[in-house]
Structure formats: structure tokens, C-alpha cells
Amino acid sequence: MLDKINFYQTGSNTVGNRLINPSMRTEQASVDRPNSLTCGHRACQGCGEALGARYAIDAAMKATSGQIMVVNATGCLEVFSTPYPESAWRLPWIHSLFGNTAAVGSGLAAAAKVRAELNGDSVTPRIIAQGGDGGTTDIGMGCLSGMFDRNDDVLYICYDNEAYMNTGVQRSSATPPAARTATTMPVGEEPGSDWGKGKDVPLIAMAHGIPYVATATIADLRDLETKVAKAMSFHGARYISILVPCPLGWGLKSSALTVTAARLAMETGFYPVYEAEYGQITSVRKIRQKQPVINYLQIQRRYAHLTGKKADPNVLARLQAMCDANIEHFGLLGDEAPQLNPAAIQAYERSKKV
Amino acid sequence: MSTEQIEGSLGVAKAVSLCKPGVVCAYPISPQTHIVENLGKFVKSGALKHCEYLNVESEFAAMSVAIGSSAGGVRTYTATASQGLLFMAEAVYSASGLGLPIVMTVASRAIGGPINIWNDHSDSLSQRDSGWLQLFCESNQDAVDTHIMAFKIAEKVGLPVMVCMDGFVLTHAFERLNLPSQEQVDAFLPKYEPREFLTPKEPISIGSMVGPEAFTEVRLLQQRKMLSSLQVIEDVTKEYREITGQHSGGLLDCYNCENADLKLIILGSSVGTAKDEIDRLKAQGINVGLISLKAYRPFPYAALKAAVGNSSQVVCVERAFSFGARGIICPEVKRALEGTSTKVCTALAGLGGRAIYGSTINGIVKHALDGKFKDEFTWFDIDTKVLNSYTRNALGITFPEGPIAESELEATLLRA
Amino acid sequence: MLQVRLHGRGGQGAVTTAEMLSLAAFLEGRFAQAFPSFGSERTGAPVVAYARIDEKNEIRTHEPIQAPDVVLVQDRTLLAVVDVFSGIHPSGYAIINTTEKPEDVVPELCKQLPPGHVLTVPATDFAVQAMKMNKPGAPMLASLAAATDILKLESVQQSFQTRYPGKVGDANAEAAALAYNFLKEAIKGGK
Fold first, then answer.
1. What whole-number distance in Å separates Cα of residue A257 and Cα of residue A262?
2. B176 has which bridge partners?
């Protein structure tokens, strides 16, 4: 079943890539590629975050002719890329803390502006602040919202793998319901992460009215690159959330399934992929071949309690209903248009509560 | 040089403005707020050019923005106090660990709970291990001058500097201030040239993870920088005094210390009050010396030892203490005086805005001369009536009038 | 060193009055200091502010004033609420903002201080007349100038005009002049 949708995989030599203009293709390797996050780092086999960061930052480098400086939150990406005295970053890069990345980005953007002014430079370096979902949607939320509020010239990228992976897979506000984490174990009446909790940070970002918000996944790298390039065409605060499956934290049956998992998250409606400008959705990545949510869940051990013999079919139905609600809200199928004000999936789940 | 009758906060804002910071981050908290308000006005009016003024959403963001801008190679300033300093504490440590020469005013104020907006030193002293230089100011003139010196010290040493000035007592006092001219400051403080900063021209990684294989060595080098700052503070102070003719800054300052057998050690705005009282005592034939401790971090052990000389008794008038332990300044002074026979103790006074009057200083001096400081630690300016109004009914104990030595407080545990 | 304590209510500008007192002294070439009793007082709450003036020397002390040489009461209703004259020097001055006579308002204090050292002035009336606002600071300081040689009227006026350039400063200066002339007349009449 999974093999059937391999057709949509993107990459230098895959079928999909051959159908598009060479100038628009992604490049796995090329002498021109900046390789901002270069080889030799210490990410796990099959790390979705490393793949996402490599593509996102290179796309930004390409879009700005190399004028990118990066602020990195504490987390896997920081730890695996800069174990002292080594660094895998081939661009200006700083790490300060877990929860202050957006604010450090604001400061760096201000400094870049002032230095360009003082030196009479025609080009001002652009800033990307990046972190995982814990560093973004939880501990970094205050600074993120402040950066949006001031509309500082920072692109914030959240590499969303739906839990605190660096500390050993604990629940974050981006963890979906029923998912097993170290702090939401699959025990009791409602195993896994609680229902009716969590928040939709892309929609929260949109509510700030910032110039550009997008979601993407590492299953569609060309889409990801296009969105990063587009984000760099705007000035002011921008936000991109990239779904980056974590083989370890999600318990993928193989570390080769990272991209597959991301693709299934899109194709089931579990993770809606869209972009928005100034608070309004402008485009939605349609589902190409709708998949039932079970196909997504069954390759992840964090949902093992939903697919085994003792599984509660009602829970599966609830998750399927969430995906269907996403499809409806964001118009992910056919010619449907997204709702004017798409609701966070948490709202759907909470409104059903008796 | 111009002379103005202005609020301390405005004086500090003018001093900071003379240093031409490229980024100022502002978040309101009493009693610091007037400083950043004034800086905001200077930026808006165009008086302070090439400066980005950011209204941030918290102190944690204020220090984080400062980290970003300082790492981006721009002279950076912010100000805070009390709860705000604690709220940004994690970033405070990050700034020093990254070696960023940020200058921050701490308009010293008590820490809650219970919430208290008035002056003492518990906020600034709580950050003593943060790796920042901490310079205390005894007057608004001292604050103006110390801020200008702080930028130079920070940039020479490669560490951030906290300028601690007493909240309200100094920040809100309207006094005569001598402000150096822009030409004088420009001659003293060159255009900021960061040694290392983030730029696409020379990409570097800052703030990588350091494991057990090198963390101790990183810390040792940080300590080395901190130790080097002792001499830098002295050199910069000398240079500043020569240019401006002011008598501010330094590691410490002695008043009436010649032949004084009893010396007081005081930080901050009570120094002036104590000087007046020392003059009155002198007129009565009582000779008391005063050491105004300016640099708390780095702690000037050698300079302090020299300043104390062969005095037989030193009383640290402290405006903060450590729960479960005793004074915070006193142990440092004892270290400085190790091997001497000088008796050192703490008179705790002036917590949470309780005013330190000339009479308070007089009381401390008399208490010391009468040999009444029997313990290392004494609650000096206790209002016995307030205390007993609670303890009489709630604990079944009462305290006698006057200062309470730590052993007397301990003894009440047996009585209760 | 001369020490002045000001009592007012939040919103009447007592802190500003103290600052303007110090500025007026500064403009006359003297050393001066002003500071509020720090708090988070809201509009209408009793407020205390302090000022010190020294002819020659830098003012080093930062303690609140416990034994004032002059007490200025910007709001008569405070007399019943706060011990505004606490610690006043035996030959000190007290000026109260009221239309009533000193003997009727503070008979005890009149006996305690030398004759002519307790004064009343309808400062609010003058402020409202000149500025349409209950900001009695300028008339209070002008009264101090009229009653003592601590300050010149012109310095008081100049201090407000420096702080509030334009209409507001001029209106304060006008209110100050009204109070100054009133008190000079009253003192002359008293003699």
C-alpha cells in the first residue's frame, strides 16, 4: 500500500522531479549548493529535523545570496550540529537558550540593520531563528509572540516533531492526542497524550497578522524550498512550521520511514499544509491520494496502543474524525476552498466534549 | 561638560545616550522605567541616532534581544530591577557565558514575595554568580559616570557589566549632575569595534555545547577575564577621571579612613548619608572610616584588605542577606582579611525600602564602639513593635527593643 | 542646609513641586536635591516629597527628611489625616494651601512656631485662576519665596517655564505671581 504513493516522492532522481522544469528542481548535491548544515554532524539516522533544516536554510541562503545568520534554540538540532569544538554550520550561527530564540533573532536583526546603516552597506543580512516544537510552541512562545508583535525582520522556523525529543520524548503542546510520550504513557482509560489539549501555532502566528505563515513537511522538499524562498521575499516577521518526523521519538518501524511518515501525515489530513499572507490563507497543498489515518499510525510505535489487539476502535475513529475535520477546515481535497477562518483542530475536539 | 538639575534616571539615560548604543531594549519595571522611557524619547526625537529601540514583551526577551544584538556586533544597553532581573536570569548567565559586553542598569529593589517595590540589594546580589561585573553607585553623579565607564570596561574585558544604582533613592532623585560633553565621551569611548561578531563575511558559530571535556577550562578562562577586570576597572577609572575631573568609579572609595579603628563598608546610596553622619561624629571626637564598595564583582580582595588596614573592627552595613546563612558582603570581607585580627560583622538594615538615616548609621557606630555586635550577623533596624505584634500572639514570644543578633533569634526557637 | 518637606495628594504635582524647588535653587547657583516618598500611590492618596538646598556644598545624604525647616501642605484635608508637621524645626516655616487664616486652621502650630512663620495661601484658587487646574505647586513655591528669602519669585517661575516650555509654564508663572503678590500684601498688612 505504501509503495503505491512513492510516485510523489521528490528528490533529484525521482519520477516527480523529472516532470518539472530543471530550474525548479531540488538539488541533493551540487557544487552551488551552500550546504549550510554540512556533513559530519551527529544527528540520528533518518533524522527529519536535519533534513528539514538542511533544505530550509539552503533555500534561504539561495534566496538571499548567502546573507543569512541563524539563531538556534536549545534542542536536538543545536546539540547534534555544534558539539564543541566542532560546528556543522557554514554560516553565522548562534545558540543562547531554549526559550529565547525569537528574541535573540530580533536583537540580531536590529544589530544587522544598525551595522548596515553605520557602514553604508547596501545589503543587510537576514535572520532565521529556528527551534523544535518545544522551544517554539511552549517555552519560546512568549518571545515568539513578541517578535511577531514587533514585526521584526526574522523568519522563525519551527521543526515540529511533536514532542521534546532532545530530553527523551516528552509531551509538548504540539503532541497530538493519543500519542505516547515519556510523560503521556499509553496506560489508563485514555492512553497516550490527552484529548482536547494542544495549540495550533501556525494559526496563532496568523492571528498576529504577520506577512507570511506557512506549514510544510520534509515529504515535499520542493514545496518547502519554495515556501522558504517566498518567506525571504517578505520583510517583517514570518513563521514556517515544518513537520519533521523523529524516527526515535515516533518509534518509526525503520529510520528509512521518516519521509514516508511525513508524507502520510499530509495525505491523511493529519498535518494540513498551507500558506498564509497577512493572516489570510493564500494556498493549500491538496491531498493527492487520501489515506486513512490508520496507515499513518501503524508505522509509528507511539500509536501502537491504537492498532494492536486491545486497541479501542473509538480512539481510531476520533483521530480519523480529526483528520476529516482538518480536510474540511483547510479544504485539503479536490476543489474545496479553505474556510475563511479555519479552526484549530483542538477546537474541533474540544467542541465535541460532552 | 554641562551641569543640569535633573532626575537620576534622566542623567543615566543621557549618559547612556552619550555612549551611542546601537540597540536599547525596553521593558517597564519600577524603579528603572524612567531610564528607558527617556532613551526612547532620545531615539524618537533623533537625538540618539543609529539606535534601534525595541519595546519587548518581558525582561527575559530584553536580555535575549540584547544577546542577539551584542552578538551581532552592536553596542547594547538595557535596564531592569528586582523581579525583572530574576525573570531574565537565565539569559543573564547566557550573556556572560557568551562574553557579550552588554551594559545593564539594575535599579536595585527588593524581591518578593511579599511584593515590595522599594530599594534594597537583594536583586543585584542574587546575580553575584552570573559572571557579570557588578558596579555599585553611591550617587547619581557616580551613576552617570559609572555607566559611561561600564561600556569601556565591558568592551575591554569582554564581559557584561551590571551597573547597580539604588532604586527610587537614586533613580527618582532630582540632583545636580555634571554630564561630560559628547567630545569628552567620544575621546574616552571609541566607536564600538567588536572583536568577534556574527556576519556572513566571516561565519562563526557562537554558543556551542561544551561537555565535561572542556567545560572546566572554559570556566577557568572566564574567571581569568573576570580577574583581569580588576585592573581594567582601575585603569578606566583613572582615564575617565583625568578626562572629566569627576571622582567616580573605582573598585572602592575610602572616606575618613586614616587612623580610623572602626570602619564601615557600605554599598550604594547610603554612602552619602553615612559620610554626613561620619562628619557629625568626627565633630564629637568619634573617628569612623567608611569604605564605599564600588565593585562587588569582581570582588577587590586586595584593595579591600589595604583599605581596612589595621583597623580592629569592620561593620558591613548590608541591605540583603542569604536565608539560612548570614550576610552576603561580610563573608567576602572576611576572606579579604583572612589572617588578620580584624573583627568583621554584618549590620543588616534598609530592607525593602526601610530608610537608612544618619541616625541608623550613628546607631551602628555606637553599637560597634560599645562592643555590642556579639554575633557575625545582626538584624539592626528592627521595628520591635511590628515584630512583637505578630509574635506575641502567634508564637508566644516577644523580642526586646533594639537590634536582634542572630543568636538571639535562634534562642527564640528554644523559648517557643 | 535647608530641608523642605511637601505634603500633597496624588495628582496635585507634589513631586514636581519638590523638583521645581530644587531646580529654582539650582538656577540660583545653589546645590539642591529633590526626591519623592517612593510608592505606588494612586490619584488622591497622600504623597510626600522632599527637597534640600545647600548654599555651597554638594548634597550627599539620601535619607528622607525627618526634621524639616519648611513644611508645605498642598492640600488642607491632609491636616486631619497625616502628621504633616512632624519634626518641624522650632523656628521653621509652615505654608498651608487654604483660604482660611492660620490661627483658624492650625492654632497649636501658630503658638509653637515664631510669629509669621505659619502662613496660609489660597494656592488652589490661584492655580485654577491661571491654569484651570488644581496644580498648586507654583503658587506654593511662590509663597515660600514671598515668606522667606529662600527663593526668588523669578527662579520659581523660571523653573516651571523650563520644565513646561510654552503655555503651561507661563500659566504656572502667572499663578506663582498671584500667590507671591497675595502673600507679600498679607505680610505687609500683618505688620
1. 9
2. B5
Residue B5: list chain C partners with CB under 8 A. Answer: 22-23, 26-27, 32
One domain, residues B239 and B262: no
The mean pLDDT value for A186-191 works out to 91
In a mutagenesis test of the A interface, which of B69, B92, B94, B193 is the best target, namely the one with the most A β-carbons within 10 Å? B69
The pLDDT value recorded for residue A30 is: 78
- Helix H or strand E encompassing B3: strand B2-7
CA distances from B19 to B28, B40, B74, B104, B242 (A): 22, 15, 12, 13, 18
Instruction: Count how many domains chain B has.
Output: 2
CA–CA dist B253, C61 (Å, integer): 16
CA distances (Å), origin A248, targets A40, A257, A267, B362: 20, 11, 22, 69
Q: How far apart are CA A297 and CA A304, in angstroms?
A: 8
* The pLDDT value given to residue C40: 66
Strand bridging mode A154-160 / B343-348: unpaired
Nine-digit cell string for A144: 515568539
Q: What CATH number is attached to the domain comprising B225?
A: 3.40.50.970
Q: What is the 3-state secondary structure (H, E, C) of C30-67?
A: CEEEEEECCCCCCCCCEEEEEEEEECCCCCCCCCCCCC
C64/C37 Cα distance (integer angstroms):
8
Q: Residue C120: helix, strand or coil by DSSP?
A: strand
Q: Distance between CA atoms of B170 and B269, rounded to whole angstroms?
A: 7
Which residues 167-206 in chain B show a CB within 8 A of chain A? 197-200, 202-206
> Is position B395 within any domain?
no
Bridge-based pairing of strands B404-405 and B377-379 is antiparallel
Place of cell 538571499: A64
| Same domain for B118 and B154 | yes
Number of domains in chain C: 1
Residue C139 domain boundaries = 2-190
SS3 C163: helix
Q: Which residues of A touch B54 (CB under 8 A)?
A: 106-107, 110, 150, 152
**B151 and B262 share one domain:** no
Q: Assess whether pLDDT exceeds 60 at residue A114.
A: yes
Any idea what DSSP says for residue A31?
A: T
Chain C hits for B168, Cβ within 8 Å:
35-36, 38
From the CA of A188, how many Å to the nearest CA of chain B? 37
Full DSSP string of B328-361: SHHHHHHHHTTTS--EEEEEE--GGG----HHHH
Query: Within this chain, do residues B210 and B274 fall inside the same structural domain, yes or no?
Result: no
**Cell 538594615 maps to which residue?**
B349
Taking the CA of residue B142 and the nearest CA in chain C, the distance in Å comes to 11
Query: Which cell is B397 given?
Result: 514570644
**Nearest chain C residue to B5, by CA:** C23
Residue B314 forms part of a structural domain: yes
Single pTM value for the model: 0.95
**pLDDT of residue B196 exceeding 50:** yes
In a domain, B391, yes or no: no
Does residue A3 register a pLDDT over 50? no
Measure CA B134 to chain center: 5
C85 phi-psi bin (left φ>0, alpha ψ -120 to 50, beta other): alpha
| Domains of chain A by start residue, with CATH | 2-352 (3.40.50.970)
Tell me the per-residue pLDDT of C46-105, one tens digit each, with 9 for 90 and over.
Answer: 999 999 999 999 999 999 999 999 999 999 999 999 999 999 999 999 999 999 999 999
**Separation between Cα atoms, residue C72 and residue B330, nearest integer Å:** 42
Across chain B, what does the average pLDDT equal? 97
The range of the structural domain enclosing residue B87 comes to 2-244
Give the residue from B223, B244, B265 where a domain finishes: B244
Q: Is residue B136 part of a domain?
A: yes
Residue to mutate among A37, A68, A84, A144, with most B CBs inside 10 A, is: A84
Q: Are B96 and B104 in contact (CB under 8 A)?
A: no
